[in-house]
Amino acid sequence: MNEAWKTIKRSADKNNGSRDVLYEINQTIAELEIYLEANPDDDIAQGQYEQFLTKRDDFTLLLTEAFDKLSQTEMRA
């Protein structure tokens, strides 16, 4: 597991739920989109935007893998 995944997993564990982490990532992406509409030439914000898109994709993949490992009974509980 690479360092980014470890950080995401630790964040999910600390927040006691992956929905909070995903919500925060999506909120940050939305804020950056609004900012970039007004400031399209800000290279730093554009870089951060790309990083958060990647972070969201990685986190979603991590969640998918975690749920795939659960049995149907565990998922229904």
Explained architecture:
- With 77 residues, the chain is mainly α.
- The chain is 84% helix and 0% strand.
- It contains four helices and no strands.
- Helix 1 (3-14) crosses helix 2 and helix 1 packs across helix 3 (43-69).
- The radius of gyration is 15 Å and the shape is elongated.
- The mean pLDDT is 79.
How does the SSE layout of this entry go?
Elements: H1 3-14, H2 18-38, H3 43-69, H4 72-76
Helix pairs in contact: 1-2, 1-3, 2-3
Provide a quick synopsis of the model:
This protein has helices spanning 3-14, 18-38, 43-69, 72-76. By secondary structure, it is mainly alpha-helical.
**What order do the SSEs take from the amino end to the carboxyl end, as H and E?**
HHHH
Question: What does the main sheet amount to?
Answer: none
Determine Rg (CA atoms, Å). Answer: 15 Å
Task: Please give the oligomerization state of what you see.
Answer: single chain
Mean pLDDT: 79
N- and C-termini, Cα separation: 28 Å
Q: Which spans of ≥5 residues are poorly predicted at pLDDT below 50?
A: none
Structural class: mainly alpha
Beta-strand share of residues: under 5%
Helix content: over 70%
Count the E strands. 0
Choose one word for the global shape. elongated
How many helix segments?
4
